[in-house]
Design a protein that fits this description.
Layout lengths: L11 H27 L5 H30 L10 H27 L5 E2 L4 E2 L6 H10 L3 H38 L22 H6 L2
Antiparallel strand pairs: 1-2
Helix pairs in contact: 1-2, 2-3, 3-5
Length: 210
């Protein structure tokens, strides 16, 4: 297992960050929509399920900083064949994903008035932190006045922006894999070898294939 990346593949640590974040992000959505569709969120029973949503959200947020640091330190695979505009759009889309992984956990945490129970430990609600108490004393904030706009941002981004960003990311990966037939998707899949792999076959190689 090669932890660092190469010009041809992502390393094992980058893959671990990517797929753990993706699983936690998707899992958080599944849990919260289960509560919305099948439970009464005003009943105590829903808090147990919502706690799972909060746990997954905190996990996503906790992975962002080390993931970004590793991205800066690690070797990044070469760009796929394409125009300069395509490369710029791809980078913009990736930074959009990182922004989403910051905004959603941050607004979710600071807008929740209950602690998150991880079993062995708990994370206090933002309402109970020294930072919020300082904000209250300094700016005269009330929890109701603070929580309402944060909650709006969390729900608007989660309901309307997140789906667009994630779907575009998935569609782009499938386009590279199924249409361009390059290694953009493959090089992020778990268990792939780290040896050199061309990003795309040239025209002569495609004609020579049976």
């Amino acid at each position: 297992m090669q932890w660092q990346g190469t010009p041809h593949r992502f390393g094992a640590l980058a893959k671990l960050f990517h797929w753990t974040s993706a699983a936690a992000f998707i899992g958080a959505y599944i849990v919260v929509y289960y509560v919305i569709w099948f439970m009464d969120d005003e009943q105590p029973e829903s808090l147990v399920v919502l706690n799972v949503h909060w746990m997954l959200g905190i996990l996503v947020g906790a992975l962002v900083l080390p993931r970004l640091l590793w991205k800066l330190l690690d070797v990044q695979p070469d760009d796929a064949p394409g125009s300069k505009l395509e490369h710029q759009l791809a980078r913009l889309a990736h930074w959009g994903l990182y922004a989403l992984l910051i905004v959603m956990p941050l607004t979710g945490y600071v807008g929740t008035s209950m602690a998150t129970d991880f079993g062995l430990f708990s994370v206090p609600s933002f309402r109970d932190t020294g930072l919020f108490h300082w904000m209250t004393a300094t700016f005269g904030l009330t929890w109701e006045g603070f929580e309402a706009p944060v909650d709006v941002v969390h729900h608007v981004v989660g309901k309307w922006v997140a789906w667009v960003v994630v779907v575009l990311h998935v569609v782009a990966a499938l386009f590279h894999h199924l249409v361009r037939k390059d290694q953009v998707l493959v090089r992020m899949l778990p268990g792939q070898q780290q040896g050199p792999a061309p990003l795309a076959l040239n025209a002569r190689q495609r004609q020579a294939r049976p």
